[in-house]
Design goal:
248 residues, 44% helix, six-stranded mixed β-sheet
């Protein structure tokens, strides 16, 4: 419950506890009412009847964990058969890299667990702007690596049958984790990915072949203005509120 309350009020906590520019602080405080309504609306149905077990997965940060929801946990469901493991599926919620809770995807995770018999785990991660890139990617990577080592013993899940999914920012993190783990381990640890409306390129440079004069007549502004807009777009990805897919 304490961890959930921290998630609900994270814009308020980040605004006063993190060393952020003043304009970010103002945005975090303005976001607080919408965050509170959205989170409580999604989480309230599960305060009484939970189809999942809450678990805290350790990360590379000493003493720090990420919150996760375990669907088809062995404490509430029996294994498919004696000596047989369930498939393992990891879901990553969306939220524009600045918010969200695993309960967002609880209906989807419940359906996947019910129809496939898999152990479905929905993981949380740190948010920008307090924790800029690559904090979210690191948390997701750490959670998946930990599950690959411990899911069989703790949850009766087969690490060789690992799939991932995510919507919006969660899809970007799922794709990033797959690429990072393939480069790191030299093989595809993730056997399948399902993403929904996921941003995979947050900056797309202007094609070299496009004529500046054509750009000027089409956009209705001078080339110098267009150049300034392009430069501003390039700079924006380096701001902490913007997280992007890592280059691997």
């Amino acid at each position: 419950m304490i961890s959930f309350l921290r998630i609900i009020f994270h814009p308020l906590i980040d605004a006063f506890c993190a060393q952020l520019p003043s304009h970010y602080r103002c945005r975090m405080l303005l976001l607080l009412p919408f965050t509170f309504i959205s989170y409580t609306w999604k989480a309230l149905p599960y305060l009484v009847n939970r189809p999942f077990v809450v678990y805290h997965i350790p990360t590379r940060r000493l003493g720090e964990t990420v919150r996760a929801l375990i669907f088809n946990h062995p404490s509430t469901h029996q294994r498919v058969a004696v000596g047989r493991l369930r498939p393992l599926h990891v879901d990553i919620h969306g939220g524009g890299f600045i918010g969200g809770i695993p309960e967002y995807d609880a209906p989807f995770c419940t359906q996947v667990a019910k129809t496939t018999g898999a152990v479905v785990i929905s993981v949380a991660y740190r948010f920008a702007p307090r924790y800029p890139y690559p904090a979210a990617h690191d948390d997701v990577e750490d959670a998946i690596l930990w599950l690959l080592k411990n899911a069989e013993g703790l949850f009766g899940a087969d690490p060789d049958l690992l799939t991932v999914s995510g919507s919006s920012a969660g899809g970007t993190l799922a794709l990033g984790a797959a690429l990072i783990l393939r480069k790191r381990e030299g093989k595809d640890l993730i056997k399948g990915i399902v993403t929904l409306y996921s941003p995979v390129r947050l900056f797309h440079p202007l094609p070299r072949s496009r004529s500046p004069r054509l750009t000027q007549s089409f956009a209705g502004r001078s080339p110098s203005s267009s150049a300034r807009q392009t430069q501003a777009a390039r700079v924006s990805v380096n701001r902490p509120i913007m997280a992007s897919l890592p280059t691997v």
